[in-house]
Amino acid sequence: MEEIYVNVEYEKAVHSKSSTDHTGPKISENIFYRAIVLCLGLLSVFLLIGLIILVVHYHYSIRSAAAELSTIKANMTESFQDSEKELSILTAEKDQLKSKLSSVTKEKDQLNARLSSLRTVKEQLNSNLSSLTAEKDQLKSKLSSVTREKDQLNDRLSSLTREKDELNATLIEITKERDRLESVTRKHCPAEWTIFSSSCYFLSSQSDSWTNARRDCQNKGADLVLIESLKEQEFLSGFTSESAWIGLSDRDEEGTWKWIDGTTMTFGYWDVEEPNNSVANSNDGEDCAEIKVQKGHKWNDKPCNLFVRWICEKKV
């Protein structure tokens, strides 16, 4: 605005100077210039007024905008604070969810491990069940077998019980017979003689030839023992603890063994490969028989001139 007024004053001075220099035709130009200056002045005034109005309007607009901005800022600040609070809450919830997720993940891993362990246990139990089933079947089979064996044992027990009863009855009879024989022995067998069945037996305390042994028995009213049964053989096996002459020989005919009463031997208790008539230790044959203790009380042929103890027998 000051520049406009300066220009106007300058132009007035110029025109004043010019008017003093040019009069007449230049008067109309001065009027024209003045009109232009006036118009410009008015225009400047209007522009200034418009500018003032714009400034005032801008000022009020700025104030209104500032108030609105302040309100908006306050609202935004409050909203921001609320958002921060919500964000804080959401962050806390997120952390809690993360913690819960971590816990759930751990529980899941533990459950998976537990599930794996349970599957292993299940497989072991299935294996054990299979094994137990097989063992049960085996036990059933064994039980059936044991049951059969028990029945067999019961049958055997019943049989043994009957045999025991029979043996007890036999023992009673034998005891009675023993008592009877002891009674008979006390009455009929001489001292140092032992009774068995219906005979008395004597074991010599010395050794001699078969012929002299028989002569000694005859002097005692007896003869060399004549073995007629397995029971008598078993008795004599316990009667003597040393080898002894018995009344058996093949002196009359080689290979034909006869008892002293002249009867031919029909059964015997010879040791293995006996009689063999070996003459390795004598000029004579082995024509006389003995009970050989070293051979399990079996019979053995021997040279008759050798010295051996002897057994005499006579009827009660």
Describe this structure in words.
- This protein is an alpha+beta fold.
- It is built from four helices and eight strands.
- It has helices at 2-21, 26-188, 210-219, 230-239; strands at 194-196, 199-203, 223-224, 244-249, 258-259, 288-292, 298-302, 309-315.
- Strands 1, 2, 3, 4, 5, 6, 7 and 8 form an eight-stranded mixed β-sheet that branches.
- Mean pLDDT is 83; it is low at 1-6 and 10-15.
CATH topology-level name of the domain at 193-315: Mannose-Binding Protein A, Chain A
Strand content: 5-15%
Average pLDDT number: 83
Shape: rod-shaped
**What series of H and E elements makes up the topology?**
HHEEHEHEEEEE
Transmembrane segments: 31-56
GO molecular function, one term: carbohydrate binding
Domain C-type lectin: 196-313
Pfam families: Lectin_C
Strand and helix layout:
Elements: H1 2-21, H2 26-188, E1 194-196, E2 199-203, H3 210-219, E3 223-224, H4 230-239, E4 244-249, E5 258-259, E6 288-292, E7 298-302, E8 309-315
Parallel strand pairs: 4-8
Antiparallel strand pairs: 1-2, 2-8, 3-8, 4-5, 4-6, 6-7
Helix pairs in contact: 1-2
